[in-house]
Every structure is written in structure tokens, then in C-alpha cells.
Write a structure and sequence with these properties.
alpha+beta, Beta-lactamase, five-stranded antiparallel β-sheet, three-stranded antiparallel β-sheet, 14 helices
Length: 410
Amino acid sequence: MIYKPPFIFAFFLSLILNEAAAKRRKPENIQSGSALDARIARYIKNKDFPGAVLVVRKGNKTIIQKAWGETFYKSKKRPDPKTSVYDLASVTKAVAVATTMMHLYDEGKFQLNDTLGKFVKAARGFPLGKLSIDRLLAHKTGLPPYYFSNYWLLAQDMWTENRFSPIATAANPDPYRGKFLPKGYRQIMLQDLCQLPFTGKNKTIYSDLNFILLGCVIEEITGKRLDVYLKEWLLEPMHLKSIAFNPIVAGIKPERIVPTMEDPLYHGWVNDNEAAKLAGICGAAGLFSNATDLIEIAQMLQNGGFWKGKQFLKLSTIKRFAWTLESGHVRGLGWQKPAANRRLKSIAPHKASLAAFGHSGYTGTLFWVDPKKNISVVFLTNVTYPKDSGSTFKKLAGYKTILSLVYDLI
């Protein structure tokens, strides 16, 4: 006679077995064949980018961890969310600078109405020295989007790339795309930028200068270079080993780095001329990361500043900087935001909560947190490879499309 367990026992046994099977299931298989797959496949077919990786978390659970395409055309190598390292471009502004400014704000190191000149000696007595930190964070300074950081060196005939050292030495310590800059060049360029004759207006213009200047504030307050301080207060305590400025110098193998420029001599170096001239360590661009490390920072922000039992930021500070929408545009203090009305353009889909925040990057990168919907998203591509030209991904609101499809799935 075959023993048949009571119905209630069998019922609970099936629940346990189904739960165990669900835990064994790989996150990347959950959404196979979705509209998201189809859209990314279309981008790849249109040659908007060779490949992409995506990690999405709902609460503390990874629900999507997936890769598409190739690291570069004809490489036959699929990118990997864990091992492939991408140039984050302007996501640097949010992850390296805005997050660090939030940390320093928690420590009482500055007030939002403090001026650049209060902390940066080079700016004192110059127009930029009067700009407040909150205006810099919100891009409300009216400063132009770009400016050459080495014009003084060029004018003095001191910017001579053919004389830069091929190896790091005491006289040439700072990296510049495979070569090394003479000592002091970076500080000369930063000082020059702080003394530009721009008066600034209370007008919203997205400007790299704002965050280059904020990088100077961080370095003056902490007495440490931006990359060093970011590593000390955030990356090392979170055990994140695949996030770095100048990843090759940091020990990340070049074959892990997904290319964003066609020239093989520039492989592994930042795809931003100004950041490159500032030794690859810049408040506007320069940070590299894989997807799985970057999602941990998003998780920390989603959890109100907590990560694995440790508090990195205060929830009140995250709300002030990232949840709060600055009047008149779609930004917080250092973060891109959903629009309060449809007349304003935003990378956020209509399903995003108004508390959501994040940042996109020129190279095809996206970092997004929605604390009300309890989700975190990291999407990384190399849309600038091999040619940095217009793509349907950028022209037709690719970031918003990806986020919209993610929201549809959850």
C-alpha cells in the first residue's frame, strides 16, 4: 500500500519545493522574451550600441540581471553585468559628486547656501567664487556647458602631449590617456577653471563646469583628491572593487573594460576630453563601473542610506537632495527627476513616482532609484562606440523607453 500524505501536508510541501525552485532560478531568465528584450534587440540591430547590461532590483531582490549583444562589434563576447566595466560618463556627477556632497552635508561640513569661494581659495575674489553650492548642484548657475580646462597651459606653450611620460614618475604622476601629466598640471587647470570671468545667472543650463567646481569643493573640504575620498568613505566600506576613476591604473584588467572610443590607444580611458585633461579624475565624468557594483549604491539610496546594517547617508538628506524637485525644471540637487508636468522633458516615465531620481550618461549609461516604488535600475551600454554620432537611442528618448519598459515589467 502506497502511503499518501494528508492534503494539508502535501500542500505545504509543494509550497516549500516551489519556493526552493524559485530561489534557484536565475534572475536573468525571469523576463525572457519580453518587450524589453525586443526593444534592446532592435537597438542592437540598428547599431545604436553593440550590447548592453541591465540589473533591476525590487526591494532587496534582483529581479532582472541580463546582458545583450556584444562588448564591441564582431567581438563575439557578450557583456556581463558582473565583469564588464563601463565608462559611466555623467553618471559620475550623481554617484561620485552628489552622493559625496550628501555625505559631507550629513557631517555638517557645509550649508547649501555656502559659496564656492568659502571653500576653494582659488575662486575667492573671482565671479565664480560667489556661486552657492545649491545652485551648482541644481545647474542653476547659467554657466556654459563646456569650457577648455587647459587653455592657459596652451597659451604658455606648456601643454605638449608628445613630451608627457609613458610611465608614472614622481615628475609625471597623473594619467592622461596612457601617458602621464607633469606634476601640478591638474591643479593649474582646476585653478584656471575656478577663475573664469563668468558672472553666472540664476538660469538652468546643464553644465559640466558646475560639477567640476563641486569636485573642487569636495577636495578642499576633505583635503583629499576626489577619487581617494570616494574610495575611503563609500567604495571600500561597501566592498565595491569594480568602481574606479582611471580603472587601468586602479588595477582593473583592460579586457574587462567595454570600449567607448574607436582608437585602441584610448581604450580604458575616459571618453571625455575635459575629464581626461584633468587626469581622469573630474566631478563631471571619469568614473567607471560594472552593473552589479553600481546597483549596490542604488540599493543603499533606495534603502534610505542603509546598506547591510550600516548607515551611509541620512534619509532626511537623501530626501532633500534627491527626492525634492527643484522649482521650474526636472532636477533635484545633483539628480535628474521626473517632471511635475508634461510640458517639461524628463528621462522618467509616467509610472515613476515623483520621489524617483537618477542620472544618465553620455556614453549610454543610466542609474535610477525609485524609493516609492522600491526599485533600483542600472542600465549600461557603449552607445558612443565606435563612432560618436547621433543614434535613435539618444534621439528618441532611449533612457525613458528603457525605464518605461522596466516599470511595465514590475
